[in-house]
Design goal:
alpha+beta, 8 strands, about 230 residues, eight-stranded antiparallel β-sheet, 8 helices, globular, 2 domains
Length: about 230
């Protein structure tokens, strides 16, 4: 590899930006429609892939109260061709979807800007939270496209840091709720059941979110704790 190639790669890496946005999915989008109809359910997409003819596929999980009703909404939505369920429980189920042409995937501003969000991402109440790591030009094209589209959206952060944020927007909301209500105090002033009721989600979903929050924080600061807390 010559020096010009190395220089070009370094320049590209320096130009990478990290963008976090929330966007209201348009009417007709399978995930937007079904989560608006079922406010206490969240869809977490783990994998997605385009298929021939403008169709698509997605795999993920459904979590929250009213999973049975949500499944009915999915099965009745015209944008869904087929569904496979995995590990069906009362408040959580894995899904594999084939999405019909026009049934909803990535909105037009993303397609025109030629950017793809990182996985996993979550949809709740018709809003999706997407993270992107791309260059400045693609970020500008995406932001301009979103403004031109008229789709309601919020830009949470834009930085040149390539590392993802510690917590998602939803996890930060739950973290703030737990701290505010004294969940981490000794003795605790709030239970998981009470937090779940305030957040409008099931206890098991709240437990899962709290577990993910704690896992992220422990992983991030474990070495610092060890350095500052020697065994002897």
């Amino acid at each position: 590899m010559n020096m010009n190639s190395v220089t070009g790669m370094t320049r590209h890496e320096a130009d990478m930006q990290h963008l976090l946005i929330s966007l209201r999915l348009p009417d007709g989008h399978w995930a937007g429609d079904t989560t608006r109809e079922n406010h206490h359910v969240a869809v977490r997409i783990e994998e997605h892939m385009p298929l021939p003819g403008g169709r698509g596929s997605a795999q993920g999980t459904i979590n929250g109260e009213g999973v049975k009703r949500f499944k009915t909404s999915l099965e009745e939505h015209p944008g869904i061709e087929s569904i496979t369920y995995y590990g069906d429980e009362s408040d959580s189920v894995g899904i594999g979807l084939t999405i019909a042409k026009g049934g909803g995937g990535f909105v037009r501003p993303l397609i025109k800007a030629e950017v793809v969000p990182q996985t996993p991402f979550e949809i709740r109440d018709g809003w999706v939270e997407w993270e992107f790591s791309t260059d400045h030009e693609h970020v500008i094209n995406l932001v301009k496209g979103l403004k031109k589209s008229g789709l309601p959206h919020r830009i949470h952060s834009l930085s040149k840091e390539s590392a993802p944020r510690l917590l998602t927007v939803r996890q930060r909301e739950i973290f703030d709720l737990a701290v505010k209500n004294g969940y981490y105090e000794v003795p605790r002033r709030a239970t998981l059941t009470e937090l779940a009721k305030q957040a409008g989600i099931s206890k098991s979903t709240m437990c899962e979110i709290i577990h993910l929050i704690e896992k992220q924080i422990v992983s991030e600061f474990a070495e610092s704790v060890r350095r500052q807390s020697p065994k002897q």
